[in-house]
TrEMBL record:
Protein name as it appears in the record: NADH-quinone oxidoreductase subunit A
Places the protein is found: Cell membrane; Membrane
A Pfam entry, by short name: Oxidored_q4
Gene Ontology cellular component list: NADH dehydrogenase complex; plasma membrane
InterPro entries xrefs: NAD(P)H_OxRDtase_bac/plastid (IPR023043), NADH_UbQ/plastoQ_OxRdtase_su3 (IPR000440), NDAH_ubi_oxred_su3_sf (IPR038430)
Family per record: Belongs to the complex I subunit 3 family.
Membrane topology label: Multi-pass membrane protein
Gene name as annotated: nuoA
Function (record text): NDH-1 shuttles electrons from NADH, via FMN and iron-sulfur (Fe-S) centers, to quinones in the respiratory chain. The immediate electron acceptor for the enzyme in this species is believed to be ubiquinone. Couples the redox reaction to proton translocation (for every two electrons transferred, four hydrogen ions are translocated across the cytoplasmic membrane), and thus conserves the redox energy in a proton gradient.
Lineage of source species: Bacteria, Pseudomonadati, Pseudomonadota, Gammaproteobacteria, Enterobacterales
């Protein structure tokens, strides 16, 4: 006994509709349950941030350098690439020499990217003024103070 194509499509769409209604219903149930069962207490310090036994001091609005975000993006990129290399290392026997050559090219591209980042100074945290003083050395620093 075979089903016609129209019956198959209808059965497939009904299954998706039941899944969708179930998922939305489950989400609504969880949100409504949290609202009904949640705490209702109101107090002066109820909504103040409190972490590790220390009360908050100052504001949470910190100005961070764009380099912080740049280094964070570099970390995520290289971390994901390390994950790909881990997956490759698990299947090294199945990949064979072709897989080894592809991984070597991948590592070479990573290394070239890292060298590029170091050469343009993207990983430098110190300001330009501090780098000039560091290159000049302690003798130039002593002479500057004597003047």
């Amino acid at each position: 006994m075979t089903m016609s194509i129209a019956t198959e499509v209808t059965a497939h769409n009904w299954a998706f509709a039941v899944f969708l209604v179930g998922a939305v219903g489950l989400c609504c149930f969880m949100l409504l349950g949290g609202f009904l069962l949640g705490g209702r207490a109101r107090a002066r310090h109820k909504n103040t941030p409190f972490e590790s036994g220390i009360e908050a001091v100052g504001t949470a609005r910190l100005r961070l350098s764009a380099k912080y975000y740049l280094v964070a993006m570099f970390f995520v990129i290289f971390d994901v690439e390390a994950l790909y290399l881990y997956a490759w290392s698990v299947s090294i026997r199945e990949a064979g020499w072709i897989g080894f050559i592809e991984a070597a090219i991948f590592i070479f591209i990573l290394l070239a990217g890292l060298v590029y980042l170091v050469r343009i100074g993207a990983l430098e945290w110190t300001p330009e003024r501090s780098r000039r003083l560091r290159k000049a050395g302690p003798i130039a620093e002593n002479q500057r103070h004597q003047q």
